[in-house]
Design a protein that fits this description.
Blueprint: E1 5-9, H1 10-13, E2 24-28, H2 29-32, H3 35-46, H4 58-66, E3 71-73, E4 77-82, E5 85-90, E6 93-96, E7 109-110
Antiparallel strand pairs: 1-2, 3-4, 3-7, 4-5, 5-6
Amino acid sequence: MFKKKEKLYIKDLLPNPALEYPGYYILSAYLAKNELLQSTLIALHSFEFSNYKNPESYDEIFAMVKKGQFSIYKEKYAVGYFGGKLMYLEPYGWKAMPVTKDLFDLNNWLIC
């Protein structure tokens, strides 16, 4: 009936994170094991964005997330695409992206 949720602890991914909050994320068992999401969270919590760049267009963001990859928003949130919606990861799960002026600023986005 309900899919099992797991806590993915940042210290399990990165022994000495530069950003310790949040200390964990609650995810489905599948996403907790997803290597693409794990690498995105490692980048966020280590502030290591050398493999990322600012997109030149929104098409680049959507192409990335539609392939099951994750982008970074404001160097603070992992962003995925679920059920036809852009969602950002909070400690207790995924939330829909609010449509604000900042959302449309390409400088707020990082993609691989």
